[in-house]
Specification:
heterodimer; A: mainly beta; seven-stranded mixed sheet; four-stranded antiparallel sheet; 11 strands; globular; B: mainly beta; five-stranded mixed sheet; 45% strand
Chain lengths: 116, 113
């Protein structure tokens, strides 16, 4: 079946502009996660959705970052007034989250964001 | 919540050498444990997992055993290949009953012919 998809694959923007990144999880997966990976760095957790609600937003770096999920499916990560330090690869993952314990997260290919 | 300590890299090995990448974690409860791999230019993918104490996960010649007594989940491979060059991430859950994972900082492995 289809895996996690993200769009766009690459985004170049100017400092101060707003950007929207999209994630389509695997059908039926109730949990959805956003991470950020800067060049040569590990994964930085941003936000976690269970259905349409976000039990954990603790990783969002500032109030310029927001995310929503609708219909228990597609999620959008929005970065307002982008800064150069926002440049990174933004990864989305989904998992079934039906077992009562952590299960495999399936990652999308990522969106590479470059802020000039 | 759980935290993870992963051996820092980079690690450079010759082909057919033995590989160990250490991973220890602080655990609440007895979670499932995961290793993920990121090959150059590709996305993260699950390498292997273990779902209970003393369980051994294995895939592509890699193994990791869930050691409850030492809260460790070290990754091993007896004979590495050039194609194993990648970044490896240890990932225990954030906490008991949590669906979230806490990713280690990653260990970059380079295997030279």
């Amino acid at each position: 079946g289809a895996g996690v998809s993200q769009s766009p694959s690459n985004k170049v923007t100017e400092k101060g502009k707003d950007v929207e990144l999209r994630c389509d999880p695997i059908s039926g997966h109730t949990a959805l996660y956003w991470y950020r990976q800067s060049l040569g760095q590990g994964l930085e957790f941003l936000i976690y959705f269970q259905g349409n609600s976000a039990p954990d937003k603790s990783g969002l770096p500032s109030d310029r970052f927001s995310a929503e999920r609708t219909g228990g499916s597609v999620s959008t990560l929005t970065i307002q007034r982008t800064q150069q330090e926002d440049s990174a690869v933004y990864l989305c993952a989904s998992s079934p989250a039906a077992s009562g314990r952590a299960d495999t997260q399936y990652f999308g290919p990522g969106t590479r964001l470059t802020v000039l | 919540g759980n935290s993870v300590t992963q051996m820092e890299g980079p690690v450079t090995l010759s082909e057919e050498a033995f590989l160990t990448i250490n991973c220890t974690y602080t655990a609440t409860g007895y979670p499932s444990l995961f290793w993920y791999v990121q090959y150059p230019g590709e996305g993260l993918q699950l390498l292997l997992k273990a779902t209970k104490a003393d369980d051994k996960g294995s895939n592509k010649g890699f193994e990791a055993t869930y050691r409850k007594e030492t809260t460790s989940f070290h990754l091993e491979k007896g004979s590495v290949q050039v194609s194993d060059s990648a970044v490896y991430f240890c990932a225990p859950p954030k906490g008991a009953g949590s669906y979230q994972l806490t990713f280690g900082k990653g260990t970059k492995l380079s295997v030279i012919p």
